Amino acid sequence: MATASLLFTLGTAHATPLDQALFSSLTVKCAANVAPLTMASIAATETGFEPYTVHDNTTRTSGVFQTAAEATNVASRLVAVGDSVDLGLMQINSKNLPMLGLSVADTFDPCTSLSAAALILGDAYTGGSTHDEQQAALRVAISRYNTGDSERGFTNGYVGKVDRHAAKFVPALDVRPDPDAKPLSAPTAADAAPTDPNAPPGWDVWASYDYQAAKDAGKRPSPEPATPTAQPASAIVFQ
To answer: What's the predicted TM-score (pTM) here?
Structure first.
């Protein structure tokens, strides 16, 4: 229990979450086989974009640390005593580290965390011949990402949480895999002209998220102008 107490004590001072520009650029660079908005929906669910998060599944304790070194120090102690620990931005489980060829310290690098998450998701995603089959396969992959099981991520509510985060990023959850598509595609006309004239375009993840959150709170801010980046229109899309 000493390590659990250490985790709780040190993990009370939060680091700054990754900002929108950095997260977007990292997903394009480090997780090219998964759409950026997919990764954003999962990161929001897992850690709220906090890169130095540690969750001990064995003791059910969590901490968000100020530095990678601090997080590595505590997480290494937990792993050394045999605990199952979720690590870093995308909460890579310690049991997966040998398979991924990573150390505990590696998981607190945001790019490495995103790359590992993309590998796990890609391995879990089986695809399908129809749109509905692809949607179902994607959610199964998300369930397996969380639990290692095709069903438990549904029953524990994890898949629903990812769906709800995605709904805040863009108007609808969708899957549009295209085996011939390039990793990134330009926004469509529909993205540039949302139905709500006050809403930011669908490709702008954080502006859409903030706008939806403000609407939920009964506010109507004017969105700041943004320069579009080459991203898919849907929140949950495997490219």
So the answer is: 0.70
